[in-house]
Design brief:
Blueprint lengths: L1 E5 L7 H14 L4 E5 L5 H14 L4 H19 L6 H19 L5 H9 L1 H16 L5 E3 L18 H11 L5 E5 L2 E3 L5 E3 L5 H12 L3 E6 L20 E3 H10 L9 H6 L4 E5 L8 E4 L10 E15 L7 H13 L3 E7 L3 E7 L5 H9 L2 E15 L3 H8 L4 E7 L2 E6 L1
Parallel strand pairs: 1-2, 1-7, 2-4, 3-4, 7-9, 8-10
Antiparallel strand pairs: 5-6, 9-10, 11-13, 11-14, 12-13, 14-16, 15-16
Helix pairs in contact: 2-3, 2-5, 3-4, 4-6, 7-8
The structure holds adenosine-5'-diphosphate (ADP), aspartic acid (ASP) and magnesium ion (MG).
Length: 416
Amino acid sequence: MQIFKFGGASVKDAEGVKNIANILQKVGYSNTLIVISAMGKTTNALEVVVHNYFKEKEKIKESIDFVKEFHHKILQELFPDEKHSIFSKIDNLFNELIFFLERNKSPKHSFVYDQVVSFGELISTTIVSQYLNDCGVKNTWLDVRNLIKTDSNYRDAGINWEETQKNIVSNVNKSLLNITQGFLGSDSNFFTTTLGREGSDYTAAIFAYCLDAESVTIWKDVPGVLNADPRYFEKTELLHKIPYKEAIELAFYGASVIHPKTLQPLQKKEIPLFVKSFINPQAQGTAVCNVAELEPKVPCFILKKEQVVISLSSLDFSFIVEDNISYIFKLLSDAKMKVSMIQNSAISFSVCVDNKFDTLSDLIEKLKEKFKVSVFENVDLYTIRHADEASVQKIQENKEVLLKQVLQNTVQMVVL
Ligand code: ADP
Ligand code: ASP
Ligand code: MG
């Protein structure tokens, strides 16, 4: 069995959906399970709906209409017959969303978030599945929430592997073409959960693991994994082969082409991960697999934008040691801060974090009770793997370096 994952960029418009049909016809689709994300920037647009629900109620309708119109345009291009049953199927999903927002009593932001943003994937898979069936690419639509079971940590749910494995093995028919949603799961009360932004790659890995798949292919708008994000770096090089360990490091440091949680389950069963171009599906792309060395072995650059550096020093010149550090980490963990770099000296401690859950101001207030605090917002974190002098120079040039750390051949720099 092979697992394919098509992300938001591959289904951002009607052409993208048509292209999936082409790819499947070219590369073959027997014994395949396809995981699909929300179309284009739909998840961001649904985040606006959630924001409006909590903060600007009068704008809810406008924000839902925006998502509706975006999908309607795609539907009209894919299904010229305006009486096609797909139109009412999609209308029903929007009605379900509106019904939820009208009836919901929970004040919990993360809970509401998951119930709302999940419609992106439910809508995209319904459209793609229908289109493929109409083209003769017969497939079965699966509701992933009946398969992937999680805890109730909304927006960043953890997998219940035992139940998930059982559900997947007993419900996925390996001999068919299966289509399902990325990013979603459900908790023990059958409320929808999500696995963290960009989590559809992880969904593909979960299915691969549970089904002992032969491979996972994620189809991207780039030729494969490059040695840097082409949006921010010129003259990038394609990495042909990447050992699992190296790919885990790259993803962990923020190479956003692969979701960081994706690789562990694959590595455990040595299932290869192919990253290929949906524009040029027959090109070789990248294989993350059981090889000894990165090929070619070149410096790899990772840029994380919009990071925050929090620098702490003790109010009374006392040392920042174990007890202080464990207190700081408790606060960071309570605030769900993702820590990307740490540096400490006798009386100071600096941490570079991602303010993903918008908890920075509360955290700072709490830290100020015990420490002198300085905050640098909107800084860039560069990580260079297999760094050499030229690559470090290239990043440092004309920038003010706030923090720098060298760990074997990995160099990290926070710059202003
Ligand atoms: P998806 O459509 O699956 O959500 P993403 O947008 O998450 O795709 O991932 C593809 C994007 O990842 C590329 O367009 C590219 O800008 C970015 N990217 C970041 N780092 C890398 C890298 N090292 N190699 C290739 N692409 C990268
Ligand atoms: N649609 C979700 C997101 O945009 C999940 C994914 O695309 O992987 O974060
Ligand atoms: Mg994505």
